[in-house]
Amino acid sequence: MSKDAGQPSCPIAQTLGVFAGKWKPEILWNLKDQRLRFNELQRAVGGVSQKMLAQQLRELQRDGLVKRIQHQSIPPHVEYEATSLIKTLEPIFGELERWYKDNAPTVRRAQKKYAKNNPS
Amino acid sequence: MSKDAGQPSCPIAQTLGVFAGKWKPEILWNLKDQRLRFNELQRAVGGVSQKMLAQQLRELQRDGLVKRIQHQSIPPHVEYEATSLIKTLEPIFGELERWYKDNAPTVRRAQKKYAKNNPS
DNA sequence: CCGTATCCATAGGGATACTG
DNA sequence: CAGTATCCCTATGGATACGG
């Protein structure tokens, strides 16, 4: 019991669900202004396994954020590109970036202070 | 091996790391305009276990987003409240909320379409 | 009342090997 | 090249019981 009904109640969590997966921000970040092939993307993201990359790309496609472009050729040639829906995320990305620029030091200090008070 | 260096490269991921944990958005959402006690918070969030709530609260304290207020009394009385740093997240929350309002239907449609094309 | 400690099941995710 | 399939280990997270 106490099974979650499924939908998180607040819209914040809903939106995060779409783009806040483990590798998604970096994938979107890299696709923001360029098409990339699978391997290029894997190198660009750095540290992601094939399995994870494929999976996250599938979810991004499902949610309409990324489009898969298959060129018929041998050897196969596939490119991924951001859809127009991604453009609507830009204000969010902008705010996230700005927040980091403005507040990262504050967070660092809080963490140091916390660490000092908590002999883990 | 192949241990990740630690820091994700893009600031987006950095910022998300601070507040995008599984229960954090809902915790912050509830603390936004009121102090709450541990049990109140647990009920408010809904579905979160004691263990998870305690853990997420610890992280939020560590990152300076939440303050723990301990009243000395028997039985113990503890309250959690948002710090001023949380205020700086509001533009982000605002954008996230707005995005959901504007684009949730689009995402739904994309998902339906994707499901139709992918007999999973 | 406010948590921590412990146990345990499940899902996440890496490495590797293989296919169209 | 662009993935899937498999194996396997670890981290996550729920339930329960206990301590300050």
Give a quick set of tags describing it.
homodimer, 120 residues, mainly alpha, 6 helices, 3 strands, 58% helix, DNA-binding, DNA-binding (chains A, B), DNA-binding HxlR family transcriptional regulator (chains A, B), HTH_HxlR (chains A, B)
The domain tally of chain A reads 1
The CATH class assignment of chain A is Mainly Alpha
Number of helices of chain A: 6
Strand content of chain A: 5-15%
Strand order of the largest sheet of chain A: 1-3-2
GO molecular function (chains A, B): DNA binding
Keywords (chains A, B): DNA-binding, Transcription, Transcription regulation
Protein name (chains A, B): DNA-binding HxlR family transcriptional regulator
Pfam families (chains A, B): HxlR (PF01638)
Short description:
The structure is a homodimer of 120-residue chains. By secondary structure, chain A is mainly α.
